[in-house]
Automatic annotation (TrEMBL):
Full protein name: Sensor histidine kinase YesM
Encoding gene per record: yesM_3
Annotated organism of origin: Paenibacillus cineris
Pfam families with a match to the protein in the record: His_kinase (PF06580)
Keyword Phosphoprotein carried by entry: yes
Keyword Nucleotidyltransferase: no
PANTHER family linked: SENSOR HISTIDINE KINASE YPDA
Length: 577
């Protein structure tokens, strides 16, 4: 069967055709779009204004939240039990206890300082011990310069939301009728930096923080008179109403002004932008918009037709051929008359179909299954995470002086890696495979800090002549430690036992975990019951496939509910006679 490929012989490659066609049809659109963007910038006035409003509102809310956060930390500090103890029992404390409480308060102040980039200094004054404690000057007896400054600020009436001393800004709160003062200095450079971030939203824009009563607290403008003029454009009501952005004229220039309330400071954050930066005259926009729209439709139609002709049709032929492959019809060939990339793709497809047919006839599926099992075995031999954790456990045992446990873990670990890394036959005596699984259990129990235990039966009935594939029991036990106890249960147990009767070898692994649901067990049994050709990468499925490939369909794994409450895995081997 042959499929004819559409198209004529061409010296151009497909990607060259696509690029050339795309450029030819898109260049007029790009040129017109540039011109329209220049002519139509002012049509985006509302969007830009809304964006500026949203940007200023976002930054002001962020600043407001940060100031509220600092105030909450200050109130939490005043209620700190160590600080309260210093306040109430300061004169009755022993020297050691007083020093210890002061250190605790200093740690709390240090934590408060690093909790926000806006805090440059945090301190408290405790009247009972006659000391100030701060991150800047440490523990200092009173009177001192820091206390004098705070005292002078607290004399201001009525009490403001924040205090200013020159260019410095403070939050001051008291507790216990003035027996404890808490003061936090806010970084003026950081506040100014936050204002500059807002001002950077648009060119020729400035931001100020203040109100008509307090004046300008901070501004990004170079001239202070400009900020005062902006504040003069608002009355007290409109200044604190963040829903009233609009145009104002100042010094003959129209400004778009956006006020936002910073309630934590009882101030307003005002951004004002030169209107000429965000508005431009606009003419003939509607006509050119529809023209551009029609041209875009024509371009899309022409481009779609070109792509369909040069790419979609050949790919459709290829997709149809793959669908026929999926129906196990391998007697298919695609004939190509072009000399482009699809010619190579079609020839490669024909070669693939021919090789696939030959491989399936040569028992290809069984070879792939064996290769997967070998790859899984090699992967299981290299587990650096498991090794690193084991070495860390040995290190910690040595640190705490538990030499017996460290020696036992080292011995088990050595035996474990000696087994999985040695070269030799793929099959080993069952006794060695069983002992290797027990070594793995010992290592995991030590790594789980004895939160998990295992019980096993010494196998004495299995003939020494029985050999099994390597690493068929460990993946089952590994599945228990990885999944049954992943919720951190403290009394995890694994039960392992063997039984050999009438030429049949059975190994049972159970656990008392509570994570395996009936639906999960049923789903696992469904996967285990599938034919060995199914592609699975999990350990249990891999072991099941290896056993079925070697010993037949009667061998393999089955899952059920354990009498201990967890998952029960039965491994069955019927040795070849």
């Amino acid at each position: 069967m042959k499929l004819q490929s559409a198209g004529k012989a061409s010296r151009w490659y497909v990607y060259q055709k696509i690029v050339i066609v795309f450029i030819l049809f898109l260049l007029p659109l790009i040129s017109m779009n540039i011109w329209l963007n220049y002519k139509g910038m002012s049509i985006t006035k509302d969007a830009i204004l809304n964006s500026s409003l949203a940007g200023a509102s976002f930054y002001s809310k962020q600043l407001d939240k940060e100031m509220y956060f600092i105030r909450n930390l200050q109130l939490q500090l005043l209620n700190d039990k160590d600080l309260q103890k210093l306040s109430f029992r300061g004169s009755m404390l022993e020297n050691y206890e007083e020093v210890e409480l002061i250190d605790q308060v200093r740690d709390r102040l240090a934590t408060l300082t690093v909790s926000s980039e806006y805090v440059v200094n945090a301190g408290v004054y405790v009247e009972a011990i006659g000391k100030t404690i701060s991150t800047d000057s440490g523990v200092t007896n009173t009177p001192n310069e820091e206390l004098k400054l705070i005292s002078s600020l607290m004399a201001v009436t009525p009490k403001p939301s924040f205090y200013r001393s020159g260019s410095r800004i403070f939050f001051i709160e008291t507790e216990n009728n003035g027996a404890v003062w808490s003061y936090i200095e806010i970084s003026r450079p950081k506040l100014l930096e936050a204002l500059r971030e807002i001002a950077n939203l648009y060119p020729q824009s400035e931001v100020l923080l203040g109100d008509k009563e307090a004046g300008t607290v901070l501004t990004t403008a170079q001239e202070q008179g400009e900020s005062a003029a902006v504040l003069g454009l608002f009355d007290d009501e409109s200044l604190h109403n963040s829903s009233m952005p609009g145009m104002r004229k100042m010094h003959g220039v129209n400004y778009f002004i956006t006020p936002n309330d910073v309630s934590s400071l009882h101030l307003s954050l005002i951004m004002y932008v030169n209107q000429n930066e965000i508005t431009r005259p606009l003419s003939q926009f509607i006509t050119w918009f529809y023209t551009l729209f029609i041209i875009a439709i024509i371009v899309m139609i022409l481009y779609s037709f070109s792509v369909n002709l040069m790419i979609h049709r050949p790919l459709s032929k290829l997709v149809k051929a793959f669908h026929m492959i999926e129906t196990d019809n391998l007697n298919i060939m695609i004939e190509s008359k072009t000399k482009d990339e699809f010619h190579y793709v079609f020839n490669s497809f024909n070669n693939m179909a021919r090789k696939l047919k030959n491989s399936i006839e040569d028992n290809y599926e069984q070879k792939i299954a064996l290769q997967r099992s070998q790859l899984k075995q090699l992967q299981s031999q290299i587990n650096p995470h498991f090794l690193y954790n084991s070495f860390f456990n040995i290190y910690m045992m040595c640190k705490v002086g538990d030499s017996d446990s460290a020696a036992e873990l080292s011995q088990r670990l050595g035996s474990y890696y000696q087994y999985i890394t040695r070269s030799g036959a793929d099959e080993v005596p069952f006794d060695k495979e069983y002992r290797h699984a027990l070594d793995y259990c010992d290592i995991q129990c030590i790594r789980f800090s004895n939160r998990v235990h295992f019980e096993y039966e010494e196998q004495t009935e299995v003939p020494a002549t029985i050999t099994v594939p390597r690493l068929i029991i460990q993946p089952i036990v590994e599945n228990v430690f990885e999944h049954a106890f992943e919720d951190g249960m403290m009394e995890g147990k694994v039960y392992i036992r063997t039984e050999y009767r009438e030429g049949k070898l059975c190994v049972t692994v159970e656990d008392n975990g509570n994570l395996a649901t009936d639906a999960m067990i049923e789903q696992l049994n469904t996967k285990l019951a599938r034919d060995s050709k199914s592609i699975e990468n999990t350990g249990l499925i891999n072991v099941n496939n290896r056993l079925k490939l070697k010993y037949g369909p009667e061998s393999g794994l089955t899952a059920s509910r354990s009498m201990h409450g967890g998952l029960k895995i039965n491994l069955t081997i019927i040795p070849e006679t």
